[in-house]
Amino acid sequence: MDIVIDTHTHTLASGHAYSTIIENALAAKNKNLKLLCTTDHAPSMPGAPHYWFFNNQRILPRFLHDVGIIRGVEANILNLEGEIDLPPSSDQHLDWVIASFHEPVFPPSTEADHTTALINIIKSGRVDVLGHLGNPNYPFDIDAVLTCAKAYNVAIEVNNTSLTGKSRHGSDVRCNTIVERGTAIGVQFTTGSDAHFCEEIATLDLAIALLKKHDVEEEYVLTTCPSRFLNFLLLRGKEKIDAFEALY
User: Which positions does UniProt annotate for Zn(2+) 1 binding (predicted)?
Assistant: First the structure.
């Protein structure tokens, strides 16, 4: 499985990452990526930038080191109503919105609460993908959430860092079940390194191995082809990115 997009990466703007977007793009080029999603933490995360940081991504070049730059965010799930920590006015400036649970923002609760929050955030229409769902601190009704995600064209991330055991300990077991059930349900998957340092860009070996284990077909993995990913954004109602015309 050839992965040409990393859909989850951080720069030093996140407050606990250590590279610039220029350094990340160069690493992406050296690892033969075609697109790089830059997805710093949204404002509710300690150390994260002000929402203006995300609104101002329009100044970023569409290509850095010949790698296409997807302007994004890793937003925080705030509550059971499915709200995220950016105002709706920010949406027009973003190509790619990840929604994730983070302990400092949404303290772990019950399976029912986590399920309600995830379903509501899917139905809000404001997020494109659910990030690192394998975190065992946030159990949820897997079939209910993945079925809803498929119905609303929201992708499911396979997060490589979650599979390393370095953070979100115990995620590997739940990630295995999520990919197994997601394959049966027919969701669209993405692959994110969750890089917090440039050398981690495109480190996706464990995510790829998990997808292969469950015989996930490439057509269900958005990151295997630039056109597949970009057309998914169109399906999500995003405007066509003229600078990427040759990649559609």
Answer: 8, 10, 74, 194
